[in-house]
Amino acid sequence: MNTAFNIVAVSGGAWRPSRTLVLTEALIGALGQHLDFNVQVIELGDIARPVGGALSRSELPADVEAQLLAIEQADLLIVAAPVYRGSYPGQFKHLFDLIGQDALIDTPVLLAATGGSERHALVIDHQLRPLFSFFQALTLPIGVYASQADFDDYRITSPALQARIALAAERAAAVLGGVIDSAPRKIA
Fold first, then answer.
1. How many C-beta neighbours within 10 Å does residue 135 have?
2. C-alpha distances in angstroms, 85 versus 20, 110, 116, 127, 167?
3. What gap in Å lies between CA 13 and CA 165, rounded to an integer?
């Protein structure tokens, strides 16, 4: 019996076009090679104004509250953030400030980030992973970082990034019980 998982992907970019959204969609596509799932993509840019103006969840419109509930009820979260000045944007953090502190306990989270250069590559381990550790979420060991050099006109062109996306998807699928190819894969 196949189970369709509920995956929620949060793309933390506020602008379009967005390399963060492209990376998010690539991760969703790669997961589709291993799992049956329903996916909801939440783009921060679409809800930034109501989220930014809310000091508590009770101040959010119903459609945004529904998106927060989706985050809290996901079987797997894909969380991707752009990096500005060494960290994720404040608006991204504020979104997660509105999530119940016990709502993500044991929820697997696939972390991803995009930045202008490799200078920001440690954001996954030094910024995103601690945020989700607070929630007691299960951050997956493999995160995916992409720099501007990995894209051409908002398309992923880097073979190394494509391989990392595939590996991250395989590992995420294994956590959810998906069938994976068990052959080791060398990543450049």
1. 21
2. 16, 22, 10, 12, 28
3. 19
What tens digit of pLDDT does each residue of 76-95 get? Answer: 999 999 999 889 999 999 99
**Composition of the chain by helix, strand, coil, percent to 5:** 45, 20, 35
Tokens of 62: 């119903």
Phi, psi (rounded to 5 degrees) for 10: -105, 115
Strand partners, 112: 80, 144
Catalogue all structural domains in the chain, each as residue range(s) with its CATH number: 5-175 (3.40.50.360)
Please report which confidence band the pLDDT of residue 2 belongs to, taking 50, 70 and 90 as the band edges: low
